[in-house]
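Dear Dr. H.,

I hope your travels went smoothly. While you were away I took the liberty of generating a structure for the chain from your last submission, since the lab meeting agenda had it listed for discussion. I wanted you to have the full record in hand beforehand rather than looking at slides cold. The sequence, exactly as received, is reproduced here:
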Amino acid sequence: MDLLRVQESLPVAAECDLLVCGGGCSGITAAVAAARHGARVVLIERWPSVGGMATNALVNGWHRSDREEMVIYGLVEESAQRAERHGWIRRDPAYPHAHETHWFDPEGMRIVWQRMLDEAGVRTFCYLTAGEPLVEGGRLRGVLADTKRGRQAFLGQIVIDA
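The corresponding predicted structure, in token form, is as follows:
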């Protein structure tokens, strides 16, 4: 849908530097990383909480090793350290030679990830599905979403479909 027509007819719920559509592991890390570097970030997630399949579908095993050594670090490592402080994650005894190296409590990881988003200053909207794309000059600039107040636009200079 053309962005100019939307702006004339629909309210804009949020404008930001980065709009992340999807609050799973990838969306969370994109949002937190961008916000920590000064971007104004909005994340919209269709489920009641962040974490995607890891928390909402209980797919709670991580594959962080190539079966010889740890190969995935960054925000995943930070998430693991935060969860470990509360006893919400455990390392496989065969680490790093195990396929699934870490198992976590999905309820605890929801808290860890929401705190990371909040601390970074990410505006998070749950129970909100990204709908029709908004295009301006051949470039994706946002999405429409059906909110409790009706259909509204969420706009970003950059949009990530996560």
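Two observations you may find useful: The CA atoms of residues 55 and 106 lie 4 Å apart. The helical segments are 3-9, 25-36, 52-56, 74-84, 106-120.

With kind regards,
E. W.
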